[in-house]
Amino acid sequence: MSTTVKGIIAREKGAEVELTDIVIPEPGPNDVIVKVKSCGVCHTDLGYRNGDIEDAFPFLLGHESAAVVETVGEDVTHVKEGDYVILNWRAVCGECRACKKGEPKYCFNTFNASKSMTLTDGTELTPALGIGSFAEKTLVHERQCTKVNPEADPAAVGLLGCGIMAGLGAAVNTGEISYGESVAVFGLGGVGMAAVAGAKLAGAGKIIAVDIDERKTEWAKGLGATHTINSKDMSVEEVAEAVRELTDGFGTDVAIDAVGIMPTFQQAFYSRDHAGRMVMVGVPNLTDKIDLPAIDFYSRGGSLRPAWYGDCLPERDFPAYTQLFENGQLPLDKFVTERIPLDAVEDAFETMKKGNVLRSVVVL
Protein backbone atom coordinates (compact mmCIF):
# COMPACT_ATOMS: atom_id res chain seq x y z
CA MET A 1 0.00 0.00 0.00
CA SER A 2 1.33 3.45 -0.89
CA THR A 3 1.83 6.26 1.63
CA THR A 4 1.21 9.98 1.08
CA VAL A 5 3.38 12.48 2.97
CA LYS A 6 4.50 16.08 2.70
CA GLY A 7 7.72 16.89 0.88
CA ILE A 8 9.65 19.74 -0.74
CA ILE A 9 9.95 19.65 -4.52
CA ALA A 10 11.58 21.77 -7.21
CA ARG A 11 9.05 21.68 -10.03
CA GLU A 12 11.02 23.57 -12.66
CA LYS A 13 14.36 25.30 -13.12
CA GLY A 14 14.84 28.33 -10.90
CA ALA A 15 11.31 28.30 -9.47
CA GLU A 16 10.77 28.56 -5.73
CA VAL A 17 10.41 25.18 -4.05
CA GLU A 18 6.98 23.87 -3.04
CA LEU A 19 5.68 21.93 -0.06
CA THR A 20 3.30 19.38 -1.52
CA ASP A 21 1.97 15.84 -1.23
CA ILE A 22 4.24 13.06 -2.44
CA VAL A 23 3.36 9.41 -2.80
CA ILE A 24 5.72 6.70 -1.54
CA PRO A 25 5.08 3.25 -3.01
CA GLU A 26 5.28 0.03 -1.08
CA PRO A 27 8.99 -0.81 -0.81
CA GLY A 28 10.61 -3.22 -3.24
CA PRO A 29 12.42 -6.32 -1.94
CA ASN A 30 15.55 -4.43 -0.85
CA ASP A 31 13.99 -1.03 -0.22
CA VAL A 32 13.04 0.66 3.03
CA ILE A 33 10.78 3.52 4.00
CA VAL A 34 12.37 5.76 6.61
CA LYS A 35 10.82 8.41 8.82
CA VAL A 36 13.02 11.49 8.43
CA LYS A 37 14.19 13.13 11.66
CA SER A 38 16.40 15.87 10.20
CA CYS A 39 17.70 17.18 6.88
CA GLY A 40 20.44 19.75 6.36
CA VAL A 41 19.97 22.47 3.75
CA CYS A 42 22.94 21.77 1.47
CA HIS A 43 24.18 23.85 -1.47
CA THR A 44 23.71 20.76 -3.64
CA ASP A 45 19.94 21.04 -3.15
CA LEU A 46 20.08 24.63 -4.35
CA GLY A 47 22.03 23.36 -7.35
CA TYR A 48 19.23 20.91 -8.16
CA ARG A 49 16.62 23.66 -7.75
CA ASN A 50 18.54 25.92 -10.15
CA GLY A 51 19.13 23.22 -12.77
CA ASP A 52 22.91 23.28 -12.28
CA ILE A 53 23.25 19.51 -11.73
CA GLU A 54 20.77 17.85 -14.08
CA ASP A 55 17.48 18.57 -15.82
CA ALA A 56 15.31 15.72 -14.50
CA PHE A 57 12.59 17.90 -12.97
CA PRO A 58 10.62 17.68 -10.76
CA PHE A 59 13.08 16.93 -7.98
CA LEU A 60 12.32 15.76 -4.47
CA LEU A 61 15.00 17.73 -2.65
CA GLY A 62 16.99 16.90 0.48
CA HIS A 63 19.67 14.31 1.17
CA GLU A 64 21.65 15.15 4.34
CA SER A 65 19.60 13.26 6.91
CA ALA A 66 19.16 11.19 10.01
CA ALA A 67 16.09 8.94 10.03
CA VAL A 68 14.41 5.92 11.59
CA VAL A 69 13.63 2.81 9.55
CA GLU A 70 9.86 2.37 9.47
CA THR A 71 9.03 -0.28 6.82
CA VAL A 72 11.32 -2.83 5.18
CA GLY A 73 11.09 -4.85 1.97
CA GLU A 74 10.83 -8.62 2.11
CA ASP A 75 14.52 -9.30 1.38
CA VAL A 76 16.04 -6.59 3.58
CA THR A 77 18.76 -7.82 5.94
CA HIS A 78 21.01 -4.78 6.39
CA VAL A 79 18.63 -2.89 8.71
CA LYS A 80 15.44 -3.56 10.63
CA GLU A 81 12.42 -1.52 11.64
CA GLY A 82 13.29 0.95 14.37
CA ASP A 83 16.98 1.32 13.45
CA TYR A 84 18.36 4.85 13.72
CA VAL A 85 20.33 5.65 10.58
CA ILE A 86 22.17 8.30 8.60
CA LEU A 87 21.26 8.24 4.91
CA ASN A 88 24.07 8.02 2.38
CA TRP A 89 24.42 8.34 -1.36
CA ARG A 90 27.31 5.93 -1.68
CA ALA A 91 25.73 2.55 -1.04
CA VAL A 92 28.72 0.43 -2.05
CA CYS A 93 27.79 -2.42 -4.39
CA GLY A 94 30.82 -4.67 -3.87
CA GLU A 95 30.68 -5.90 -7.48
CA CYS A 96 31.73 -3.06 -9.83
CA ARG A 97 35.26 -2.68 -11.17
CA ALA A 98 36.19 -0.11 -8.48
CA CYS A 99 34.98 -2.36 -5.66
CA LYS A 100 36.75 -5.37 -7.12
CA LYS A 101 39.99 -3.35 -7.29
CA GLY A 102 39.69 -2.65 -3.58
CA GLU A 103 38.59 0.96 -4.11
CA PRO A 104 34.95 0.96 -2.90
CA LYS A 105 35.17 4.71 -2.26
CA TYR A 106 34.89 5.05 -6.05
CA CYS A 107 31.96 2.62 -6.40
CA PHE A 108 30.39 3.08 -9.85
CA ASN A 109 27.16 1.22 -9.12
CA THR A 110 25.78 2.63 -5.89
CA PHE A 111 22.36 1.31 -4.89
CA ASN A 112 19.14 3.33 -4.99
CA ALA A 113 15.50 2.47 -4.35
CA SER A 114 13.95 0.19 -6.99
CA LYS A 115 10.73 2.21 -7.27
CA SER A 116 9.93 5.86 -7.93
CA MET A 117 8.18 8.25 -5.62
CA THR A 118 5.59 10.41 -7.36
CA LEU A 119 3.31 13.39 -7.10
CA THR A 120 -0.35 12.59 -6.50
CA ASP A 121 -1.03 12.84 -10.26
CA GLY A 122 1.52 10.08 -10.94
CA THR A 123 4.39 12.33 -12.09
CA GLU A 124 7.66 10.61 -11.17
CA LEU A 125 10.03 12.51 -8.88
CA THR A 126 13.82 12.49 -9.10
CA PRO A 127 15.19 12.27 -5.54
CA ALA A 128 18.22 14.47 -4.90
CA LEU A 129 21.33 12.27 -4.81
CA GLY A 130 19.02 9.27 -4.84
CA ILE A 131 17.60 10.16 -1.42
CA GLY A 132 14.98 12.95 -1.44
CA SER A 133 14.62 13.62 2.30
CA PHE A 134 13.07 17.05 2.56
CA ALA A 135 10.01 14.98 3.37
CA GLU A 136 8.27 13.40 6.30
CA LYS A 137 9.28 10.00 4.93
CA THR A 138 11.29 8.79 1.96
CA LEU A 139 12.14 5.57 0.09
CA VAL A 140 15.73 4.36 -0.21
CA HIS A 141 17.70 1.16 -0.72
CA GLU A 142 18.62 -0.65 2.49
CA ARG A 143 22.33 -0.03 1.80
CA GLN A 144 21.70 3.72 1.82
CA CYS A 145 21.05 3.40 5.56
CA THR A 146 24.00 3.42 7.95
CA LYS A 147 23.21 2.56 11.57
CA VAL A 148 24.61 4.89 14.25
CA ASN A 149 24.14 5.53 17.96
CA PRO A 150 20.40 6.23 18.48
CA GLU A 151 21.18 8.70 21.28
CA ALA A 152 22.95 11.12 18.92
CA ASP A 153 21.27 14.42 18.02
CA PRO A 154 19.79 13.92 14.51
CA ALA A 155 20.30 17.56 13.49
CA ALA A 156 24.04 17.22 14.17
CA VAL A 157 24.90 13.70 12.99
CA GLY A 158 22.60 13.87 9.97
CA LEU A 159 25.05 16.38 8.49
CA LEU A 160 27.52 13.52 8.05
CA GLY A 161 25.28 12.40 5.18
CA CYS A 162 26.90 14.88 2.79
CA GLY A 163 28.65 18.21 3.32
CA ILE A 164 30.32 17.68 6.67
CA MET A 165 31.56 14.24 5.62
CA ALA A 166 32.89 15.77 2.39
CA GLY A 167 35.01 18.26 4.33
CA LEU A 168 36.15 15.84 7.02
CA GLY A 169 37.05 13.26 4.40
CA ALA A 170 38.87 15.77 2.21
CA ALA A 171 41.24 16.38 5.11
CA VAL A 172 41.53 12.90 6.62
CA ASN A 173 41.02 10.54 3.67
CA THR A 174 41.97 12.45 0.51
CA GLY A 175 44.51 14.85 2.00
CA GLU A 176 46.01 12.13 4.20
CA ILE A 177 47.08 14.76 6.72
CA SER A 178 49.73 13.47 9.07
CA TYR A 179 50.52 14.54 12.62
CA GLY A 180 52.26 17.92 12.70
CA GLU A 181 51.70 18.84 9.04
CA SER A 182 50.55 22.28 7.95
CA VAL A 183 47.19 22.76 6.23
CA ALA A 184 45.38 25.65 4.55
CA VAL A 185 41.64 25.58 3.85
CA PHE A 186 40.21 27.99 1.28
CA GLY A 187 36.51 28.81 1.66
CA LEU A 188 34.74 28.49 5.00
CA GLY A 189 31.26 27.30 4.27
CA GLY A 190 30.06 24.09 5.90
CA VAL A 191 32.45 21.92 3.86
CA GLY A 192 35.46 24.14 4.50
CA MET A 193 34.73 24.35 8.21
CA ALA A 194 34.48 20.56 8.31
CA ALA A 195 37.87 20.37 6.59
CA VAL A 196 39.28 22.58 9.35
CA ALA A 197 37.77 20.25 11.97
CA GLY A 198 39.13 17.25 10.07
CA ALA A 199 42.62 18.74 9.98
CA LYS A 200 42.47 19.18 13.75
CA LEU A 201 41.33 15.58 14.22
CA ALA A 202 44.21 14.40 12.04
CA GLY A 203 46.71 16.22 14.25
CA ALA A 204 47.77 19.02 11.92
CA GLY A 205 50.24 21.37 13.59
CA LYS A 206 49.21 24.52 11.77
CA ILE A 207 45.74 25.07 10.30
CA ILE A 208 45.25 28.23 8.21
CA ALA A 209 41.65 29.19 7.44
CA VAL A 210 41.10 31.53 4.46
CA ASP A 211 37.89 33.37 3.54
CA ILE A 212 36.62 36.80 2.49
CA ASP A 213 34.20 36.94 5.44
CA GLU A 214 35.66 37.97 8.81
CA ARG A 215 32.80 36.23 10.67
CA LYS A 216 33.71 32.92 9.12
CA THR A 217 37.42 33.19 9.89
CA GLU A 218 36.43 33.81 13.52
CA TRP A 219 34.10 30.79 13.47
CA ALA A 220 36.95 28.68 12.09
CA LYS A 221 39.04 29.37 15.18
CA GLY A 222 36.40 27.60 17.22
CA LEU A 223 36.80 24.49 15.05
CA GLY A 224 40.57 24.30 15.18
CA ALA A 225 42.11 26.98 12.96
CA THR A 226 45.39 28.24 14.40
CA HIS A 227 45.71 31.12 11.91
CA THR A 228 43.31 32.98 9.63
CA ILE A 229 43.57 35.10 6.50
CA ASN A 230 40.90 37.48 5.27
CA SER A 231 41.43 37.21 1.51
CA LYS A 232 38.97 39.95 0.51
CA ASP A 233 40.53 42.21 -2.16
CA MET A 234 43.70 40.10 -2.24
CA SER A 235 45.18 38.66 -5.43
CA VAL A 236 46.03 34.98 -5.77
CA GLU A 237 49.71 35.75 -5.30
CA GLU A 238 49.02 37.90 -2.23
CA VAL A 239 47.05 35.08 -0.63
CA ALA A 240 49.78 32.56 -1.44
CA GLU A 241 52.42 34.88 -0.02
CA ALA A 242 50.40 35.32 3.19
CA VAL A 243 50.25 31.54 3.56
CA ARG A 244 54.01 31.25 2.94
CA GLU A 245 54.67 33.88 5.62
CA LEU A 246 52.88 31.63 8.11
CA THR A 247 54.82 28.52 7.04
CA ASP A 248 58.49 29.61 7.19
CA GLY A 249 58.34 30.80 3.59
CA PHE A 250 57.57 27.37 2.16
CA GLY A 251 53.80 26.93 1.87
CA THR A 252 51.62 24.19 3.36
CA ASP A 253 51.91 20.43 3.21
CA VAL A 254 48.21 20.24 2.29
CA ALA A 255 45.95 22.86 0.67
CA ILE A 256 42.19 22.29 0.40
CA ASP A 257 39.92 24.17 -2.02
CA ALA A 258 36.47 23.98 -0.44
CA VAL A 259 34.75 26.28 -2.94
CA GLY A 260 35.50 24.96 -6.44
CA ILE A 261 35.99 28.25 -8.31
CA MET A 262 39.18 29.26 -10.08
CA PRO A 263 40.31 31.94 -7.59
CA THR A 264 40.24 29.49 -4.66
CA PHE A 265 41.65 26.67 -6.81
CA GLN A 266 44.61 28.85 -7.76
CA GLN A 267 45.08 30.08 -4.20
CA ALA A 268 45.28 26.49 -2.98
CA PHE A 269 47.55 25.41 -5.83
CA TYR A 270 50.11 28.17 -5.29
CA SER A 271 49.97 28.06 -1.48
CA ARG A 272 51.39 24.53 -1.35
CA ASP A 273 54.97 23.75 -0.53
CA HIS A 274 56.85 22.07 -3.38
CA ALA A 275 55.59 18.49 -3.59
CA GLY A 276 52.66 19.48 -1.38
CA ARG A 277 49.23 17.94 -1.75
CA MET A 278 46.20 19.85 -2.99
CA VAL A 279 42.63 18.64 -2.56
CA MET A 280 39.62 20.03 -4.43
CA VAL A 281 36.39 19.27 -2.57
CA GLY A 282 34.37 22.33 -3.61
CA VAL A 283 32.09 21.38 -6.52
CA PRO A 284 32.68 23.42 -9.71
CA ASN A 285 29.86 24.36 -12.02
CA LEU A 286 29.37 22.75 -15.42
CA THR A 287 31.24 25.45 -17.38
CA ASP A 288 34.33 26.07 -15.19
CA LYS A 289 37.74 25.14 -16.57
CA ILE A 290 41.06 24.77 -14.74
CA ASP A 291 43.33 27.65 -15.73
CA LEU A 292 46.99 27.07 -14.87
CA PRO A 293 50.23 27.41 -16.84
CA ALA A 294 51.32 23.87 -17.68
CA ILE A 295 54.86 24.60 -16.53
CA ASP A 296 53.56 25.50 -13.05
CA PHE A 297 51.65 22.23 -12.86
CA TYR A 298 54.75 20.32 -13.93
CA SER A 299 57.39 22.11 -11.89
CA ARG A 300 55.73 22.17 -8.49
CA GLY A 301 55.38 18.40 -8.13
CA GLY A 302 53.19 16.91 -5.44
CA SER A 303 49.64 15.92 -6.22
CA LEU A 304 46.24 17.38 -7.10
CA ARG A 305 43.35 15.25 -5.86
CA PRO A 306 39.59 15.65 -6.24
CA ALA A 307 37.63 14.52 -3.18
CA TRP A 308 34.31 12.93 -4.08
CA TYR A 309 32.20 12.64 -0.90
CA GLY A 310 35.43 12.99 1.02
CA ASP A 311 36.51 9.55 -0.27
CA CYS A 312 34.40 8.17 2.56
CA LEU A 313 32.97 4.75 3.25
CA PRO A 314 29.72 5.41 5.12
CA GLU A 315 29.67 2.08 6.97
CA ARG A 316 33.14 2.81 8.32
CA ASP A 317 33.03 6.57 8.77
CA PHE A 318 29.52 7.53 9.91
CA PRO A 319 29.55 5.44 13.12
CA ALA A 320 33.13 6.50 13.88
CA TYR A 321 32.45 10.22 13.54
CA THR A 322 29.19 9.88 15.45
CA GLN A 323 31.15 8.33 18.29
CA LEU A 324 33.72 11.14 18.17
CA PHE A 325 30.83 13.61 18.41
CA GLU A 326 29.35 11.74 21.38
CA ASN A 327 32.80 11.73 23.03
CA GLY A 328 33.14 15.51 22.63
CA GLN A 329 36.03 15.21 20.16
CA LEU A 330 34.15 16.43 17.06
CA PRO A 331 31.79 19.41 17.57
CA LEU A 332 29.16 18.57 14.94
CA ASP A 333 26.63 20.63 16.85
CA LYS A 334 28.60 23.79 16.04
CA PHE A 335 27.65 23.35 12.39
CA VAL A 336 23.94 23.63 13.20
CA THR A 337 23.27 27.36 12.97
CA GLU A 338 19.47 27.13 12.99
CA ARG A 339 16.73 24.51 13.21
CA ILE A 340 13.79 25.15 10.89
CA PRO A 341 10.48 23.56 9.83
CA LEU A 342 10.01 21.81 6.52
CA ASP A 343 8.19 24.74 4.92
CA ALA A 344 11.16 27.11 5.52
CA VAL A 345 13.56 25.54 2.97
CA GLU A 346 13.19 28.32 0.40
CA ASP A 347 13.99 30.93 3.03
CA ALA A 348 16.98 28.83 4.12
CA PHE A 349 18.36 28.93 0.56
CA GLU A 350 18.33 32.73 0.74
CA THR A 351 20.01 32.69 4.15
CA MET A 352 22.66 30.31 2.82
CA LYS A 353 23.39 32.52 -0.19
CA LYS A 354 23.99 35.46 2.15
CA GLY A 355 26.57 33.42 4.08
CA ASN A 356 24.77 33.80 7.40
CA VAL A 357 24.83 30.11 8.38
CA LEU A 358 26.98 27.02 8.36
CA ARG A 359 23.87 24.85 8.17
CA SER A 360 20.16 25.39 8.44
CA VAL A 361 18.69 22.05 9.46
CA VAL A 362 15.09 20.97 8.93
CA VAL A 363 13.88 19.14 12.04
CA LEU A 364 10.76 16.99 11.76
Automatic annotation (TrEMBL):
<dbReference type="Pfam" id="PF08240">
    <property type="entry name" value="ADH_N"/>
</dbReference>
<dbReference type="GO" id="GO:0008270">
    <property type="term" value="F:zinc ion binding"/>
</dbReference>
<keyword id="KW-0862">Zinc</keyword>
<keyword id="KW-0479">Metal-binding</keyword>
<dbReference type="InterPro" id="IPR020843">
    <property type="entry name" value="ER"/>
</dbReference>
<dbReference type="InterPro" id="IPR013149">
    <property type="entry name" value="ADH-like_C"/>
</dbReference>
<dbReference type="InterPro" id="IPR013154">
    <property type="entry name" value="ADH-like_N"/>
</dbReference>
<dbReference type="InterPro" id="IPR017816">
    <property type="entry name" value="MycoS_dep_FDH"/>
</dbReference>
<keyword id="KW-0520">NAD</keyword>
<protein>
    <submittedName>
        <fullName>S-(Hydroxymethyl)mycothiol dehydrogenase</fullName>
    </submittedName>
</protein>
<dbReference type="InterPro" id="IPR036291">
    <property type="entry name" value="NAD(P)-bd_dom_sf"/>
</dbReference>
<dbReference type="InterPro" id="IPR011032">
    <property type="entry name" value="GroES-like_sf"/>
</dbReference>
<dbReference type="GO" id="GO:0051903">
    <property type="term" value="F:S-(hydroxymethyl)glutathione dehydrogenase [NAD(P)+] activity"/>
</dbReference>
<feature type="domain" description="Enoyl reductase (ER)">
    <location>
        <begin position="14"/>
        <end position="364"/>
    </location>
</feature>
<dbReference type="Pfam" id="PF00107">
    <property type="entry name" value="ADH_zinc_N"/>
</dbReference>
<comment type="similarity">
    <text>Belongs to the zinc-containing alcohol dehydrogenase family.</text>
</comment>
<dbReference type="GO" id="GO:0046294">
    <property type="term" value="P:formaldehyde catabolic process"/>
</dbReference>
<dbReference type="GO" id="GO:0005829">
    <property type="term" value="C:cytosol"/>
</dbReference>
